[in-house]
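User: Could you write out the 3D structure of this protein bound to 2-oxoglutaric acid? I've included everything you need below.
Assistant: Certainly. Input first, then the structure.
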Amino acid sequence: MFRLETGRYVEICSDHAQSIEDFDSIPIIDFSELLSEDANARRKLAEKIYVACSTVGFFYAVNHGIPQDVTANAFEWSKKFFHGLTTAQKMKIDTALLPDSQYQGYFPFGSVNKSQKKLSDLMEAFNINYDYRYDPDKPSKPDAKQSNFINLWPDEDLPEFKLHIEAYHAECLKFSRRLVKLIAMALGLSPDYFDDAIRYPTAGLRIAHYPKQEASANDQNGLGAHTDFDFITLVNQGNVGGLQVLNKKGQWIKAQPLTGSLVVNVGDCLMRLSNNRLSSTVHRVVNESGQARYSMPFFFGLNQNYVMEGLPSCVSDDNKYMYPVTTVGEYLEWRSRSSKSGNIHEFDNKR
Ligand SMILES: O=C(O)CCC(=O)C(=O)O
Ligand SMILES: [Fe+2]
């Protein structure tokens, strides 16, 4: 049993888990055919995605098309942020300056302890939100409700940083929108099923720094066991390992770094929408590599005002939607608030 930050205990051998295969490795999916004109090639890709997402909940994406130089620049500027700024400079954009429902800004060391270990998670991070002005699809200005995108940038102390981080964010947006079409196909829906639902997505990018840890994984994690809130996550973990994924037997399977790849995983919103056909799998970071680790997780979700009901291909009279109907915005606000404050606000007893 694992305690998640919502206070819920995840049983490793739940009925759902028993009905799907266990895994001891993370599949690799080649996205060279992502933009192929060949419908058969795209269908095959969608099938691979379905198998990976319904069993492991994780896969490596290779040949995803995100340019290497954009990724390398974002990593380089992340290091300048973590090591070039003083703590006082970083604290000018402390996430604690924002309400608990907001996730942007700097997360100092000691501010996160996802799985209630003896020592807090050994990580510092910086998060940004979607901002339509940097969206490569150039959507028109959203209405007021959808345009509440506050970001805290270290503009005074590291003015160029924003440019490189937004450039990487834009590439992640492009790949995610393409991937969502395949996920729709994987679930038996038309590839454009989610097009309107990802016009102004809840797309957050985090850059994270995990120093090498001395304590055991029992006492401390880089980031404790959790599931991701959103629809899908893309993680670029550079070349230092530390990400671990929990299988049904309760074993932590290492997601070893695979050069040039992204680690992609199903988030709780997609698990909910698919009525548990896809698995949002528990994972954590433990940096026992002996060197500092940097990663860039990108959390892609549907529009804030999207109403989460079971997808038509995933519910039926005999298989009713098992979650309360909420908007994406309401759901994410609840998850962010309980995560940041440590208080569990009763919404329902599931994640
Ligand atoms: O750093 C990583 O590899 C993954 C981080 C993660 O799981 C998260 O930020 O949700
Ligand atoms: Fe995660």
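Residues 1-7, 9-18, 343-349 have pLDDT under 50 and may be disordered.
User: Perfect, thank you.
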